[in-house]
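the six lines:
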Amino acid sequence: MSQKDKKEKRASRKSRRQAETRKSLLDAARKVFAVTGLTSATIAQITETADLGFGTFYLHFASKEELYLAVLKEGFAELDKELKQILDEARESQYSGNEIIEIVIAIFFRFARENRDLFQVGFAGLDAGMQIGISLRKQYADWFSELLKEIHPVEIPESQLELLSTSIVAMVSRTAVWWMQQKEESEPDFLSLEQAIAVVSRFAIAGLTDFYSISN
Amino acid sequence: MSQKDKKEKRASRKSRRQAETRKSLLDAARKVFAVTGLTSATIAQITETADLGFGTFYLHFASKEELYLAVLKEGFAELDKELKQILDEARESQYSGNEIIEIVIAIFFRFARENRDLFQVGFAGLDAGMQIGISLRKQYADWFSELLKEIHPVEIPESQLELLSTSIVAMVSRTAVWWMQQKEESEPDFLSLEQAIAVVSRFAIAGLTDFYSISN
Amino acid sequence: MSQKDKKEKRASRKSRRQAETRKSLLDAARKVFAVTGLTSATIAQITETADLGFGTFYLHFASKEELYLAVLKEGFAELDKELKQILDEARESQYSGNEIIEIVIAIFFRFARENRDLFQVGFAGLDAGMQIGISLRKQYADWFSELLKEIHPVEIPESQLELLSTSIVAMVSRTAVWWMQQKEESEPDFLSLEQAIAVVSRFAIAGLTDFYSISN
Amino acid sequence: MSQKDKKEKRASRKSRRQAETRKSLLDAARKVFAVTGLTSATIAQITETADLGFGTFYLHFASKEELYLAVLKEGFAELDKELKQILDEARESQYSGNEIIEIVIAIFFRFARENRDLFQVGFAGLDAGMQIGISLRKQYADWFSELLKEIHPVEIPESQLELLSTSIVAMVSRTAVWWMQQKEESEPDFLSLEQAIAVVSRFAIAGLTDFYSISN
DNA sequence: AATGAATGAGAGTTCATTCAT
DNA sequence: GATGAATGAACTCTCATTCAT
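prediction for all of em together
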């Protein structure tokens, strides 16, 4: 093995370790943010949760805000990927419009269930003057507008489309959070994930159907 | 004028002044909370906005939390009153179920428009581990469940009723916030208050109608 | 009754009332100081204890320090008077030196018992950068030096005289405070006031006798 | 040098530095407390005196009280050690009772001279409702009771023993403080340390001798 | 690269003092 | 003269960030 190779190998080992440390911090941050909120979370809590030294944080992130953005960006990447795929499938008309709606809602609920902490953090609202919660909702509302255009190629005023998308995203995201909290308290009479998805989907589909039927 | 009268008059003048100061603080807090969120808001910002001395705050509130609760309680009192009245009217069947739903949604939107800051504060979400935003949403969801029982006396499982109410309250409240933000930016193609109410109402009514028709 | 008389009468009524208010504040201050110490005592506590309005304080005293000095000065006035009298009697040789010493110690203990709060406050030590406790001890030590000169007209170096006086005043004052605290806890086996005085007196007299016998 | 060794070395260097900082704070606190008293002393004064950053304080002590206790505990440890040793020697009867008394008084005076600030702080009196000064005096009075029992095995009532011990400790400690203040002002006619010890010792011994001779 | 001691700006809170009533 | 609401300086404590090791 050449000198250069050795160096590279060592470098890659280093960067792998570095990536692991970074991951630890992101995971820890997600947990801490979910419990204490963004503003109240402290770097000390996060590094302690990650079982890392105090100063290590600043080797990976320039500030708490940068960390927050990274948590959201990397956390929601998977959801974004799934949604992108669904949009493509909608374009290829593999499913009916109503089927797609239900699939999308199911994706949201499942993602929320598997990323409880992150989901709550992301949709938490306007904390600390950061409009991140809002921008996330806006982002998914915009995406939903795109979807609706694919499904119902009827032209409706942009403003109405936005309002519809906003409404549905708000409903789905908050209801998912609510559902997780219900589940947590282990009520005897509680809705399964499938039931919850079914109810919300039917509601959304009925509303949309009505809306588009009149618009035509 | 007797000694006693003088004393009383002085006392009432003082308490009037005190009440005014308290009001100033509540108004200022509402504004500041809407911009920065609860956690990041500082007492200094609030007293400065109210154009009052720093220590004055502590003559009226023991802490930021107490102020926050007072802002919400006193701010939403009017909305609560209107909703209570509507529930009574629903019981007396003065309106059809669908009319009531639309009226309720209109009340929310109008209240939001006239209490922008407050509405955003109240529904801002779970800020910093404080569950106040949540409890407000929960409170109105519970109220909405009551209303639905009056309108559609069909018995449906409690858990489904809760989910429906939660969904609708989430949708209406967040969409109202969104609408206010749209309006602010004075887009050329924007929805009037009446239009927004109409769209959301139609959507909600269609969803509910579908839901109850199947349940029957 | 002439106009002038009326005026005077009214004025005297006023000033009598004023004096009462002042007295209330002094009494309240004494209590509060004894419990919380000088620095930690607040004007609010004092006026509340005196059942007076907040601002009233500043009609009678310019500051907390002024109050503190007044409390001590007026409180110890009686003790000073008694001691002055004893010194005169010593000059007239109505009692033997040892009798005088015992009388003085008895006066201290009785005054301490009847002015618990005040005595503790006065001898509390150096609180808040105020050297008042020290100056009080110094004052009584100086007085005691005078007394010793009367009783034992032998000339001993000033520095030794001061040391002796300081020692005895320290011993008597602190032991009186200790005795009051013992009594408070109502121990079964506790010393009566007379016993305590007797022990301390005998101790002091023996020490002094020895000292002066050698000096001669 | 192995990885582990390096780590350990680094840790020990760090903890050494930490210990130094802690020491600086204790020293500074001693000075500040002696001048301003406990209640009026501020953290800022202390850190400034120690030439350290403001927040550094809280890395080492949780509060001013904790610091105060540490100052006393660590400061008086040496005195306690010496006294313990003397008590042992008294038990082994290496010295006569009167010699022991003089040795003890000398120890107190010498310790006071070498720990001026600390000694004043410790015996400053009941500051602001904190009973620490009192408890220190009580502690040494109790120790002195033990000593007296060794020296004079005659049984005298506990209450009288306590009163005697209290008196002597009060006398010795306050007189030591007084002596230091005299010295400071560099009076022409002032007592040397040895002289002061001699006077106080003779006084105390004469008093005790008289007391025990009568008790027998 | 990792660490954590040191830092100080900034937050909440208290309270002596002023002043309008 | 009596009052207590208003004030802001001063204090304690927290925590993001820096930096020497």
